[in-house]
Task: structure prediction
Amino acid sequence: MDFSPGNVHGLLLYDFGASPCARRCRITLIEKGLRWDTQIVDLSRLEQRNPAYLALNPNGFVPTLAHGERVIYESNVITEYLDDAFPDPPLYPDDPWQLARVKMWQSAEAAMAKDYRTLMYQRLMGPILRLTRSRHEALDAVRRSTSDPADIAWEERVFDLAVLTPREEAQCEQRLYAWLDELEKALQGSGFLVGDRFGQAEISVYPRVAMLPFIGLPVRPERHPAVADWMDRLAERPSFARTLSQQDAGLTRLSRTPILPWLRRSVATPPANRSLATRAGLFAAKQFARRVLGDRPSRARGGGPGPKPIRLPARGSVAPGRARRAERPALSDEWRAQPLTLYDYAPSPHGRRIRVLLREKGIPWHTEWIDMGRMAHKAPAFLAVNPFGELPVLRHGDRVIYDSQVIAEYLDRGTRDRGAPLYPDDAYETARVRMWLALEAGTHKEFRPLFYLHVVRPRLLAEGLGVDDVDAIVPAGVSDSHRDWLRDTLRGAPRFDTSEALARSIILSKLDFMEARLDGRAFLVGDHFTMADVAWITRLDLFPMLGIDLDRARHPNVVRWHRALRDRPCFTVDWRTHPQAG
Result:
């Protein structure tokens, strides 16, 4: 494969200009002084769902990075791999606690992105889609990249402006501003999110926050002065300025005008009811969108070209760069002696995988059970522990760590002398573990409604609880959006992006990638048991409860692997100790 001059490391980034996840990778590459080549994957046409691209990145997102023959996907995995392989200048801290804090901000941004994504499709992508294409053109463009019914159903919802109801829009907006309030608290009295210098936390969080004005949520100095100052300072940094895409620059200009709210109202009006002035305005806006936002006219009626060929990594070459990660210090003996408290919910696969890790390492801990079924994780008492309201949470002395992946790496690094490590020492092998974790996390939006419908709901119904009991069983201070979610769950109708059947199909499709990987192999990564195996087993163990059949004919290697590993004491002891989980 021929690379551009200066790209001496064979770096190829699968990119899309308007993606905040891809932008953080571009910023990291620039901060590292690295040159790279680019393959554009057009998200507006769902080219990320092209089978050729899915063979590289089974989550179907951008970015993906090829480093020689190595393929790394998920933006935070890519940026940490780059820090391991190209250590100067370091963007991730060495200190275990500081490193965990950076990763918690990455986790918090990823959680915020779930609300941002749905609001963005409702308020921005849907209106632009309706402005620039007919329904037929939009669906035809998608079908050129994918035949997956879930992808086509999603595009239909986006075009029909049916991603969220008005009430759900308002609730998303409320949660996003509450998230900004937490960012404001973190920045008060400090110019940076972690420590006293610029680092990966800034790179990870800024690109998404910079896009909030596109969906009608500007960062106003009167409410968030520290955030506004932080944004202004970062925007002037050369790596941030150079990575501002044409699409983002155009939308930034538009967000300072009344045009985007007008556009949302206008495209939602049936064509027959539009005034002459509205029609003229929409025509002008359409030309602007195609010129500034880079939208290409569709050739639906003539068939048109298919998706661009996916440039493949340089197979057979060995990626240059350091093979092993820099040695980072472990926890001090003083900190290792601090007590551990795990805030947990027994049926949660994320909580269970931390219990499995602790049992595998032989580490004692105390549990504080938090009833997710009654939304206790969204109550003020728990938000004082984790302001982002997610489980599990680990308290280690006076340190509080949330997100199961962050907790797992923190514990594994601090207990390298207790059994085999669950994260390898090699940079690429560690990245591969994290990619399996990212693939598993990529099932969240399908798994969550299935989990509430088939795990949480039966438990509540068995206690004789119903829709009318929600206000009585949910703690005071829990937001209306979470109460609504629980009511919908008890009605048997939690919100799916597509449908219950398609959610199961999407989850199973991820196993196709796993099936190929496990052909002739005992573990997902290398020849040792790792956190990748732990995470996927805790997920698969819940499949029968969710109505998902693990088909021996379709996934024989997965079935074999699951049976071989689930009988390890760390799994069976935990399952028997907490029978309410099963």
About this structure: The chain is about 50% helix and 5% strand. The beta strands are 11-15, 37-40, 64-67, 70-73, 340-344, 366-369, 393-396, 399-402.
